[in-house]
Protein: Class I SAM-dependent methyltransferase
Amino acid sequence: MSRSSFILSLCLLFSGFVLHAQVEPSAAEYTFKEGSYGGIGKWFMGREIAAVMSYRGMDWLERNSRPKEENTITLIANLDLQPGDVVADIGAGSGYHVFKMAPMVSKGQIYAVDIQPEMLAAIRTKMETERSTNVIPVEGDIQSVNLPENSINKVLMVDVYHEFEFPLEMMASVKKALKPDGRVYLIEYRGEDPNVAIKKLHKMTLDQAVKEMNAAGFQLVKNIDNLPLQHCMIFEKTE
Structure:
């Protein structure tokens, strides 16, 4: 083999190693493989992302047993809402938590964010019946919450983060919308607890949630352990 041929072979071999290194996914990238029932076949940091619950499940969100099952009064008390707070309920659904919080921030606002127009229509109907003047429905998309920059004191996400098709992008948009001292209240069914009778895809462990939020630029401040079924995890921006 000539010297030039030998050098060319080395270059091709080296470029193959570089290409291989480039296509190997990092821990904070998305991967795709065969999914389970109720999942989307897309994985993030070892967790399969769940399919979004349809607006057709709205009745389940509004079920009469929910206050007792989830202790929703305590959940909202954990946010320590102040009259002037500007709050974003991400994945607000039919507005179950929105209209409990709205009177508590009488001098502030509640952004009710959802990606399903049918959910937002239900919220607008409730705005009329509840005569709420500080609720603002917002149609988000799969990569953004579509909220004003540096405008939010507190973000509430109840059993919705695990359904984000693009969790990194969504949390980047949340981070942008948060004020410097803003907080994220991440509520998820406890994945560590086999007695929580929710499908595995719709539960998260504390360790998994912290790992993913760290990758998105958030740090855990506290995990309030006073809910019967769910974690109440409080995060702040790392910068």
Observations:
- The helical segments are 3-23, 58-61, 66-70, 72-77, 98-101, 117-130, 167-177, 206-215.
